[in-house]
Amino acid sequence: MANVYRIEILEERLRRLTEVLPSLWETVIVSVDGFVVAAYPPPISEDIFKEASTSQVAAIAASLIALGDQALNRLDQGEMRRLMIEGDEGAIVIYPINRSAALAVLVDNKSAKMGLTLHEIARTATSFAALLPE
10 Å Cβ neighbour count for 72? Predict the structure, then answer.
């Protein structure tokens, strides 16, 4: 049996998520330090003219996670369950996986059925917890 590395498992699950939800532009598992853990499409396949690169999504997601955590702590609102910012053209949705990683997704909110999309993203983020150390 061939060795399957954790990164391959993560990228395969991200690929499946984008097949189930074609309104997703990019999916990135990001560390709270802003590093890319896994992505689909993988960073190697990125178009150099694409506006939002995988590393940019990771860095922005990490900043938003830190800001969201600070706001929730300051207002005594508990742990972050989801962070979502919507614009005219799309949205970024971030679900914590554990204390050290999160799933960040860029969504085309014009074609997405947002309830189904949020449910599937949350389910996928929860499934990653077993694969990623705290």
Answer: 15
Q: Confirm if 32 and 97 have CB atoms less than 8 A apart.
A: no
> What rounded mean pLDDT belongs to the chain?
87
Between 2 and 97, where is the model more confident?
97
Q: Which domain holds residue 116?
A: 6-128
Q: Is residue 22 part of a domain?
A: yes
**Hunting for tokens 């990135």 — which residue is that?**
28
Whole-angstrom distance, CA of residue 112 vs CA of residue 43: 24
Cβ atoms of 96 and 102 within 8 Å: the answer is: yes
* CA count, 13 A, side-chain hemisphere, 80: 25
CA pair distance 49, 115, nearest whole angstrom:
31
Note the pTM of the prediction, 2 decimals. 0.87
Domain with residue 84: its CATH number is: 3.30.450.30
The count of structural domains within the chain is 1
Query: Is 133 inside any structural domain?
Result: no
